[in-house]
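Minutes, methods subgroup
Present: GH (chair), OT, SY

1. OT presented the first of two proteins processed in the latest run. Sequence and C-alpha cells recorded below as shown on screen.
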Amino acid sequence: MSQTDVITLPKVLGKVPEVVMNLPGLIKGSRMSKITDTTRPLGLGVAFEKVAANNPDGLAVIYRDRRYTYRQFNAWANRIADYLASIGLKKGDTVALDMENRPEFPATLIGCAKLGVCAALINTSQKGKVLTHSFNLVKPKA
C-alpha cells in the first residue's frame, strides 16, 4: 500500500455524518430510556459512580484551597443521597436547589441524581415574587 492509498482518520471522519459519530452514545441512551425499573437511578448518578470506580484517586474538583478525589466526592454525594432518603425523599420527588457555584452544588446535584430525585435549579439572583413563583412552579418537597 502506498502513502497515497492510506486514508487518514480525519478524512474519513469528515465524511461521516455527525449522527453516526454519536451512535454509541445514542444506543446507550436508547437502552437507558427503555429501563422501566423505577427503583434504579439512571443518568448522572450512575455515570459518576462509574467514573469514580475507574479513577478513584483522580482529582474530581479543585476549588480554591480544597481538592476532592473522585472517591471523596462520590462518598460526599452518597452521604447527601442518604440524607435525602432519610427525610423521606424518593425517586420522582423534586427538591429546589438554590446555591452559588461551589463544590456543594455538584455534590448535591449528584446526590439527588443517585436517589432519582429531580433537582430544580433555582437562579440565586431571584428575589421576592419571582423567587416565590420559581418555588411554586416546581413544587419541591425540600
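2. SY then presented the second protein from the same run.
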Amino acid sequence: MQTLPSVSSCLKSTTVGSGMISVFITNLEKYNEGKLIGEWLELPTTPEKVKQFFKQIGIDSVNYKEFFLSGYKSSVYGITNYISENSNLNELNYLACKLDELNHDEMEIYEAAIDIGVNINSITDLINLTDNLDCFQCLYNISNEYDLGFYWIAESGCYSLKELGNLTNYFDYERYGHDVALEQSGTFYSGNYIYYTGEIFSSDYDGKSVPEEYNVLNYRRSLE
C-alpha cells in the first residue's frame, strides 16, 4: 500500500511569506490519489494570481476541481484560531484585504479585541470587527494593573483627590486596577490597556455574500 507523505512534513519545509494570511492549499483529488501537491498562497491576492496558482498545483476545473486548506498562518494575532481546512477562500481574502487597510494603532486594537473575545466567533465576525474598532477604548502607556488603578483614581478626573485627602497615601492602586480590568473585560496589550466600551457592533457583512471586489475564487473567471 502506498504511504502518503504527511501534510505537516510538507509544511515544515515551506517558507511562509509576509501576507496578512497565508494558507497552504492542497489539491484534494491528487491527495486522494496518493500525491501531496500544494503550495502556500499569500492573502490578500487577486483572481489572476489565484488562476496561476491553481495551475501550479494542478487544479484545472475539469479533472481536478477540489482543494482543502492543510495549513494556515497569519502575522495577525489570533486569526488562525478561526480558520479551518474548509474555510472559504473568498472570505479569507476579504478579511486579509480589510486587515491590510488597518494602520499600526488600529492593528494593535484589533489584536487586543480578539484577545478580549467580545462578539468574535467566526471569520465573519473578524471581518466585521475591522469596522467596529471604535467600540474599543485604548489607554496608552498603561501596561499593568497599578498603572490602570492610578490612571482612574489620580489622572482621569473621575475622583477628587482633594476630597480623599491623606487617604490617597493608603490607596491600593493595583487592586483597584485589577477590579477595573475584570469589570471592563479589558486587556493589557503592547504596553497599553484596551477595553470594550459596550457599544453595539455593526454587521455590514452577513457572512453569505462576499463583495465582488474581494472574490478571487471564481472558476469561470479565474481558471478558464
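Chair's summary of item 2: Residues 1-18, 219-224 have pLDDT under 50 and may be disordered.
Next meeting: continue with the remaining queue.
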